[in-house]
Amino acid sequence: MNLNATLFAQLVVFFVLALVTMKFVWPPIAKALDERAKKIADGLAAADKAKTDLVLAEKKVVDELRKARESATDVRAGAEKQAAALIDEARGEAARIVAAAREAAEKEAGAAMQKAKEGLREQVALLAVAGAERILRKEINAQVHADLLANLKQEL
């Protein structure tokens, strides 16, 4: 066996293998690598876009929270004003009711006092008539008259 022939055969096999590899093996590997690189680039672009969208969404959330807080403050202020108005209205109504009740009670008390006075007048008149009748039935005597008047005073 000759070393030159073996070396020449190995050289021919190497070049045939290199040509077959370059023609049939290398293009699918290069294509797969290119597709993988494209997918990675698309993923990075999507991540950048998502990051930008996240920043915009955070800004929007902050703005919405601020608006919600302002709205809540406005609603609270309106509710406090309405509550104060209702309290004032209730106080006014209560004052009117108390005044009306006081006036009615004063009228009723005045009417009851007037009725009591009338009753007392009738009783005094009856007692006066009864006293005069007793005085007239008895004989005229200063001592007896004084005793009768004293009895009348005790009955009143």
UniProtKB/TrEMBL annotation:
Pfam families, per the entry: ATP-synt_B (PF00430)
Q: Which GO terms describe its molecular function?
A: proton-transporting ATP synthase activity, rotational mechanism; proton-transporting ATPase activity, rotational mechanism
Keyword vocabulary terms for this entry: ATP synthesis, Cell membrane, CF(0), Hydrogen ion transport, Ion transport, Membrane, Transmembrane, Transmembrane helix, Transport
Give the range the annotation lists for the signal sequence: none
Please list every transmembrane segment annotated in the UniProt record, as residue ranges.
6-26
Q: What is the role of the protein in this entry?
A: F(1)F(0) ATP synthase produces ATP from ADP in the presence of a proton or sodium gradient. F-type ATPases consist of two structural domains, F(1) containing the extramembraneous catalytic core and F(0) containing the membrane proton channel, linked together by a central stalk and a peripheral stalk. During catalysis, ATP synthesis in the catalytic domain of F(1) is coupled via a rotary mechanism of the central stalk subunits to proton translocation. Component of the F(0) channel, it forms part of the peripheral stalk, linking F(1) to F(0). The b'-subunit is a diverged and duplicated form of b found in plants and photosynthetic bacteria.
- HAMAP family attached to this UniProt entry: ATP_synth_b_bprime (MF_01398)
Q: How does it assemble?
A: F-type ATPases have 2 components, F(1) - the catalytic core - and F(0) - the membrane proton channel. F(1) has five subunits: alpha(3), beta(3), gamma(1), delta(1), epsilon(1). F(0) has four main subunits: a(1), b(2) and c(10-14). The alpha and beta chains form an alternating ring which encloses part of the gamma chain. F(1) is attached to F(0) by a central stalk formed by the gamma and epsilon chains, while a peripheral stalk is formed by the delta and b chains. F-type ATPases have 2 components, F(1) - the catalytic core - and F(0) - the membrane proton channel. F(1) has five subunits: alpha(3), beta(3), gamma(1), delta(1), epsilon(1). F(0) has three main subunits: a(1), b(2) and c(10-14). The alpha and beta chains form an alternating ring which encloses part of the gamma chain. F(1) is attached to F(0) by a central stalk formed by the gamma and epsilon chains, while a peripheral stalk is formed by the delta and b chains.
PANTHER family assigned to the protein according to its UniProt record, in alphabetical order: ATP SYNTHASE SUBUNIT B, ATP SYNTHASE SUBUNIT B', CHLOROPLASTIC
* Protein name per the record: ATP synthase subunit b
Its lineage reads: Bacteria, Pseudomonadati, Pseudomonadota, Betaproteobacteria, Rhodocyclales
Q: Its encoding gene is what?
A: atpF
